[in-house]
Design a protein that fits this description.
Elements: E1 5-10, H1 14-26, E2 30-36, H2 39-48, E3 54-58, H3 67-78, E4 82-87, H4 92-100, E5 105-108, H5 109-113
Parallel strand pairs: 1-2, 1-3, 3-4, 4-5
Helix pairs in contact: 2-3
Length: 116
């Protein structure tokens, strides 16, 4: 029996939320165990759920203020889960901020779009 990777998705865009739910749902070794659309919802969900392997976090959860980075920082303070940032931003300073906050990977949304 395979170990199932338990994933929480924190994404404010309903279209991206739906796309990512579909992608994760097709993976035999992954299970989406929760979704949130704001920093606050994501943090609350992280306390409510246990054994989360990966948090997929949009870098801009409300406008263009990089609040996903603050979400990653808070998640890493309280959890041992991996945090993967999802974004279309390629600015090196923003990428560095994400890794400094505790992200283990940084995936550009255009890369996610090529998945079929």
């Amino acid at each position: 029996m395979k170990n199932i990777i338990r994933v929480v998705l924190i994404e404010d865009d309903p279209d991206w939320l739906s796309i990512m739910e579909n992608i994760i749902g097709k993976e035999e070794d992954m299970m989406l165990v929760g979704c949130a659309q704001t920093e606050e919802e994501g943090i609350t969900l992280s306390y409510a759920l246990s054994n989360i392997d990966i948090f997929l976090v949009d870098i801009n959860l409300s406008g263009a203020n990089l609040d996903g980075i603050y979400t990653a920082l808070e998640l890493k303070r309280s959890k041992t889960s991996k945090v993967i940032m999802l974004t279309s931003l390629s600015d090196e300073e923003v990428i560095q901020q994400a890794f400094t906050a505790g992200a283990t990977n940084y995936i550009f949304e255009k890369e996610c779009c090529s998945y079929t």
